[in-house]
Structures are given as C-alpha cells and as structure tokens.
Amino acid sequence: MKPYVKPYYAMTIDPIHVGTGGTRLERVDLSIVRDPATKLPKIPGSSISGPARAYTALETKKYRWEENGREYSCAGRGGEGGEKHCGMVNPACPVCVPYGFSKGTGNSLQGLAQFFDAHILLFPVASMIGPVWVTSPLALEAYEIADFLEDRFYPLGKQVEARENLNFGWIMLEKAKDNLEKIDQIKKKIPEEIPEFIKQRVVLVSDTVFPKIVNSNLEVRTSVSIDPDTGAAEEKALFTYEAIPRGTILKFDVVYNSGEFFKVGDKDLKLQDGRNVDIQWVKEQVEEGLKLFEVLGIGGMNTRGMGRVRVLNLEEVNKDAREN
Ligand SMILES: [Zn+2]
C-alpha cells in the first residue's frame, strides 16, 4: 500500500511563536525557528505532531486513562522510556498507532503518520491599499519561474493589479513590466481552499525579496517576566519576542501509511471491529487532533493570546455513515 501525502493549509488566527529555545539574537530576546537556507520562519514538524498528538488524545479520551488498574497517558512522551503510552495495537490505540510509541524492543512502532515542517505560503503585510499577501516561487513550489523574476512585484490577485507601486511595510516595489503573462499561470498554484478575499490580494515577489519582506514584518512584542514566587513583575525583566503574524497561510505535509501489513511483536494491527488499520483511519485520528489547533493552539506563549491556527482543509467525516 503506497503512502498517501496530504498537504494541509492553515491560517494563523493569533500570532504564532515557535521558539528556538531562548537563544538571543540582536533583534529580539526570543527568536523563532528559521530555515537555515532560506532564512524564512518555519514551524518544525515536531511542533505540529506534538500538539496534534495531545489533542487526538483529548478527543479520543486517551489523554489520561485507566484500564485494569493501570494508568496510561497516550499524549506527550509517555514518561521516561514511553512506559505511560498504552502501546495497544489490537485494538489499535487512536493515539499510539498514528503517532507512534516505544516500550522497549519488540514493542514499538514508528507512527503511521509522519509530519513535515510548516512553511509560509502567503504572508500578510500592511500596504497603502490595506493588507496584501505576499508569496514567492519557492513558497508556491513554482520553481519554473524562479529564474526570471526581478526585484519588483507581480500581481496575482485582482485587487492589486492596478497598482504601479506598492509598499510592503517599509519596502517599496514597482510593478513588473515583463513576463506578466507567464506569471498568470502561477495563479493556479494558489490552493482552492484559500479564502477568496485573500486570493484577490496576492502578490508574487522573487525568492530574494520574499525573506526580506517577511523578516521585516514579523510581529514583535514586548512582555514582562513574572516572578513565580511573588506573582509580581520582575524588575528589568522586559523581554521581546517575535512571532508569525495572524492571517499568515502556512502549508505542511503529513504522510499517511497503512498499517495493514504491520506486526508489532507477534500482533497484527486491527481495529475494535476487526477491520484493518487503513490510511483513512490513520488520517481521521490525526485530523481529530488538527481540528483543535483552532481552539487550543500550537507553539509557545499560549497564555499570552498566541498560537491558534485554523486548518483549512480537514475532511468532513460523517461518522454515522461510516459505521453503517
Ligand atoms: Zn495509546
């Protein structure tokens, strides 16, 4: 059974802070993860699979649970060495099977769902005509046009077509004059799931200009550290942190594998009703978790109003229909 790759598109509802772990750069105290090659902010796959696992566990009642006097927690790392994960494969645990577990030799499973990094597909910037969403050949995976783009802007949406000049924050660009008909084809690379008001305001720039626009228009906030003992603000404890702004469209892939020919130890993977663990089932369990990104968020600083993301292309599952 061939693995199935599903691209997900997600819109940030709050700013998202996925930190590098406290390394201090010149610009801010708490910087976000970037791709070393492109310098563009990204969200590592592990920062997507971690909360997805926790939320699938919540939805399927495997967050903390008990059976025959044993306590399990299928969310998180499962304690030291994963001993808190139930690791049940027959019937298949909706958390341990899609996301994996390790309970020692002969009793471990790499998750049947693999998560890849989220990249910025469309980035919102304030301009003189209101918000516009910027993208680049690399972001759209439109490599065929990467070579001839100038340091100008190419309108992809109706609302930006008439402009001869446009500012992206403080960066001002002129409209391109050449190759506009070739660029027209690229509109098809903008996924259907993207809301129409965003599509109307998409602007393409080169792969050199794109990181400059993104990095100079990130959200930078200042906050104050609270002393955990007294609950009071610590003196001289102001810190700044950066975040991907709200309204950003992200793309990430999840690869789904079937568990039909898997054995763990000497056990086949089976569902409660005796059916095989197929790709559709794995995807449904993961999407139960992705659904909650919109409510509970991802990344750090969730208590400061950060982190909510709406995944735009979750499958509508009619569970009653499936069970009949
Ligand atoms: Zn489990």
From TrEMBL:
Residues 12-310 form the CRISPR type III-associated protein domain. Keywords: Antiviral defense. Coiled coil: none annotated. It comes from the Bacteria. InterPro entries: CRISPR-assoc_RAMP_Cmr4 (IPR013410), RAMP_III_fam (IPR005537). One of its GO terms (biological process) is defense response to virus. Pfam families: RAMPs. This is CRISPR-associated RAMP protein, Cmr4 family. It comes from Thermotoga petrophila.
